[in-house]
Every structure is written in structure tokens, then in C-alpha cells.
Amino acid sequence: MTTPDERMRAIRFGRETLSDLTTRTDVSVQTRTVAGEILERYPTHDDLVGFLETQRLVLPHEWADALRDARKLLEAVGLSRDLPEGAPFFILATLRHFPEEGLLECVSRGPVALTWLAHERDWP
């Protein structure tokens, strides 16, 4: 089961991975372009922390859409055979706690976002 702080970390890793994809020369131009377009809508870690502090209950639709699009891209890239050794594993590890489409639909419509995300904590 994914904890709220694991989900927050996965979202942060997702952003870092998308950013990495925009500069990699070993992925297609289309993948770099799509990653860049998603990044423009993708919430930053500071955005998410600010969201938690306001105690709003519904995730903004734009963020939910960006996370949904990111998941689709990361899944496709993670299954690609064209990446260097280790890259697909990192992507699939990020996806382990990354929000799924059904969950994103739920938190962008109803008052559950506060229990869905939490500040990351340092594990001993």
C-alpha cells in the first residue's frame, strides 16, 4: 500500500524524470517534446507543499491531468527497449507509488486530497 508521503515522493521523482527526459539524446524528439509539454503543467514540489498548507480538499484538474499524462508517458518510456541499462528500472520504480488514473480522477473531484498527499518524511 502506498502511503501519502511515498506518493508525494513519487510525484517529485516523476517531475525529475520528466525533466531528465527533456534533455536526453537517447530518446526520441517526440518523447522530449511531450515531456516538456507535460512539465509546463506539472506541479512543482513547492506547489504541492503549498497545496497541503492551504488544506484545500480537491486537487486542481490541471495538475491531475498533468500527472495522468506523465504516468502514461513514463509507462511507455519505461517499456521502451531503446533506453540505456537501468533507466527503465528507475522509471518503473518511480511508477510504483505514482498515482493511478482512477485515483487522480477521484482526488480531482472530491474532498480527499488531504489524506492522499503528505509532506515527505525522512526514513531512519
What would you note in describing this structure?
The chain is mainly α and 124 residues long. It has one domain. Helix content is 65%, strand content 0%.
Q: What layout of secondary structure does this protein have?
A:
Blueprint: H1 4-23, H2 29-41, H3 45-54, H4 61-78, H5 87-95, H6 101-107, H7 113-116
Helix pairs in contact: 1-2, 1-4, 2-4, 4-5, 4-6
Brief write-up:
This protein is 65% helix and 0% strand.
Shape: globular
Count the E strands. 0
β-sheet strand percentage: under 5%
User: What proportion of the residues is helical, as a percent range?
Assistant: 55-70%
Number of domains: 1
List the helices and strands in order: HHHHHHH
Low-confidence stretches at least 5 residues in length (pLDDT < 50)?
none
- Terminal CA distance reads 19 Å
- Report Rg: 14 Å
Tally of DSSP helical segments: 7
Class from secondary-structure proportions: mainly alpha
Characterize the biggest β-sheet: none
Mean pLDDT: 84
Entry keywords:
single chain; 124 residues; 7 helices
